[in-house]
Design brief:
elongated; six-stranded mixed sheet; 2 domains; Nuclear Transport Factor 2, Chain: A; five-stranded mixed sheet; 336 residues; alpha+beta; Alpha-Beta Plaits
């Protein structure tokens, strides 16, 4: 075959190979890489089991590789030789180095050996076979070793990344829980409640969605603590919290405001609905049994959002209602 004619016929395969290097190693773009493979692609030895794999298996490995190491990979070819088998089939044999950065660490692979088979159908070139290997101290110098060692390193690295990600997420979740949950009662914390109340106030201002607040205080709790001790007092707080949480609706936010005070934020709730829930809570707390021989009751203040209340926050109004309930007899509800 004339050298010039052969050079011209090899050009589509060379371009296809260059597209593969750019899409896979430089751009790290899985979709661009996937379209370069033929339907009957078959590879060998890249899995830990060192088995032949199909196009689907291979593309899954590519996807995992790009997710583990998304940064561009620099390539330096020591050798790159194309061989035209016939007008529709070609081989490329290459020796190359790869270098990238993973988690701010430079990772290098030197003297990788690549064998690729490309096939053309209706003037469209596709990769139909590939084998990649590199020298290893574990094997003889002349032995062609598949990607088991590289795969094992990648597998180990993925485990490290997964563990680090899991540890960071666990730490974040624990910190979030520490901030947003009351340690003793396991209700929402004051911090979480204040954030939720601000959001609800914004919803009211923008969309006029009414909401209701309920503030509760255990009557004469200090004397209970003084008589029975703080450990028994904590048990009472936990028991009362369980009762409140059980009666409140799933859409309500129940929080420990501080000490022996509890608060409920009730989105899109009118005063009569809140009064029914408050009465159910007050009755349940009064009629429950506790670790001490004492009657446990609640004084409750309830208020609903109104557009005319601009000079004083609803929470302050509900707080005043609760103290009015205490001053006028305790174990009762005062609604605003």
């Amino acid at each position: 075959m004339n050298a010039t004619i052969e050079d011209e016929k090899i050009i589509p395969f060379q371009k296809h190979f260059d597209q593969y290097i750019n899409a896979y190693l430089t751009e790290r773009d899985w979709s661009k890489t996937a379209v370069l493979f033929g339907e009957h692609f078959c590879g060998f030895g890249t899995g830990l089991a060192e088995k032949c794999y199909t196009r689907g298996d291979g593309l899954l490995l590519y996807q995992q590789d790009m997710e583990s190491a998304p940064n561009p990979i620099q390539v330096r070819f020591h050798k790159k030789q194309f061989q035209l088998i016939d007008p529709d089939n070609a081989l490329v044999v290459a020796e190359l180095d790869m270098e990238t950065e993973i988690l701010e660490q430079t990772v290098k692979f030197n003297n990788l050996r690549l064998l690729m088979v490309m096939h053309r159908v209706d003037n469209k070139v596709g990769i139909v076979g590939m084998h990649l290997s590199f020298p290893t101290d574990v094997h003889e110098e002349e032995e062609s070793f598949p990607l088991k060692e590289l795969e094992e390193r990648t597998h180990l690295f993925r485990k490290m990344v997964d563990q680090q990600t899991k540890s960071l997420k666990q730490a974040y979740d624990e910190l979030t829980d520490l901030i947003n949950r009351d340690r003793l009662t396991q209700l929402s914390s004051r911090h979480y409640f204040e954030e939720a109340l601000l959001n609800e106030q914004t919803r009211f201002q923008n969309f006029k969605r009414n909401y209701t607040l309920m503030l509760m205080d255990i009557d004469d709790f200090k004397s209970i603590n003084d008589q029975y001790g703080h450990e028994s007092g904590d048990e009472i707080l936990i028991s009362v919290a369980v009762i409140i949480q059980k009666i409140a609706r799933k859409t309500d936010i129940v929080a420990r405001w501080g000490g022996d005070e509890f608060v409920i934020l009730m989105p899109e709730t009118e005063l009569d609905q809140a009064l029914n829930i408050g009465e159910a809570i007050r009755t349940a707390v009064q009629n429950s049994s506790y670790a001490v021989v004492a009657e446990i009751t609640l004084s409750i203040g309830i208020g609903c959002s109104r557009g005319s209340w601009q000079d004083q926050s609803l929470f302050k109004i509900v707080d005043a209602a609760m103290y009015e309930a205490k001053k006028t007899g305790k174990n009762q509800i005062v609604c605003i």
